[in-house]
Each structure stands twice: as C-alpha cells, then as structure tokens.
Amino acid sequence: MQELASWTLQTLRHDASHPTWLEERKFEWIPLAKRALQRIFNGDSLILITDNDREWFMHYVVQSINRSSNRPYVPVIGIDTLFPQIDRVLHKDETEISLINDYLNTMFSQKYFFWYVGRNDASRSKLALSHEDCFLWIFDTQLQNSFTLQSTDSLADIKLMQMYRIFNLTLEAAMFGNIRLE
User: Fold this and answer.
1) What is the pLDDT of residues 127-150, one digit of tens each?
2) Three-state SS for 152?
3) Secondary-structure percent of the chain, ordered helix, strand, coil, rounded to 5
4) What is the CA radius of gyration of the chain?
C-alpha cells in the first residue's frame, strides 16, 4: 500500500492523459483530493455543482463516474437532479440557500458535501460556498482550500478532464486498497 503523495506523483508522471501541469501543483491538489476521498469513504454523498459554463462537466462526471461495473458505486449526484430549477431559485434571495441546505441536511442526514467547479461569482457558487468543507475547483479567484484554474486558459476544459481522470483513478486506488488516505 502506497502513500497518497507518492502514488499521485507516479500516476501524474505516467498517466496516458499527460497531466504534467498538475504535477507542478501537487501540493495544492493532494490535500483537497485526500479530504474529498476521506469524506466519501466516511459515507458522505457528493453533490456536484458547476457554474453554467461548465455544466457539461457536471453531466459528464455524473454519467461516467459509476460506469465501471468493477467497483462499488460512488454517491455522486448533480445538483440539477435534486433541483432542476436551481438557477431560478438561487436568484430570488439568500433565504433560499438556507431552505435548500435544510432540505439537503434532512435528505442526506447531514452526510453530504459539495463539489463545486466554476467561478466564485456565479449564482450557483453561493450554495456551495455556504458550506465550509467543500471540494472546490474555482476559476479566476484564489480561495482558501480550493484548486484555482484560469478561464482564459485555452486548455481549461482539458485540464478539468485530466483532474477528473486523476481524481477517479485515485478514488479507485483507494477503494482497492492500493493507497492510504491516513
């Protein structure tokens, strides 16, 4: 069983998608991925939220993360599945966020967290940022405990896909006992 850091470094160097840029930022990536995986393995569900520009990413992740029949399913749900009218609701006022959080706390017995991908000034970000412990992939702004990307980067979509690939590989390695999350 390998340490997460050494496994991640090895994977980043040898993965077919060639995410060499992520190796340079491993000290930002590893703690965030580790915390998200620990929460998943502690029984928390993951609610994926994106801004409107990256909604395609949410749909891709939700459709692909449990595609493999060789491993247990991962509880990942897109916010639009729970709230198809999310954009209309979040534009009303801040009390809607409290109502949504109350609903999710009841539905998931407070065993959930948000994975947010997008700009921090998007209306959907308000819901994710209303919680302290989220898995944040933020565009154009640096926030504490987040991984920052630039929307002006012509490879931003490719980088998202590479990050997802590495996250999914890490999830699988942890499931099968190849790495330690402690």
Assistant:
1) 999 988 899 999 999 999 999 999
2) coil
3) 50, 15, 35
4) 16
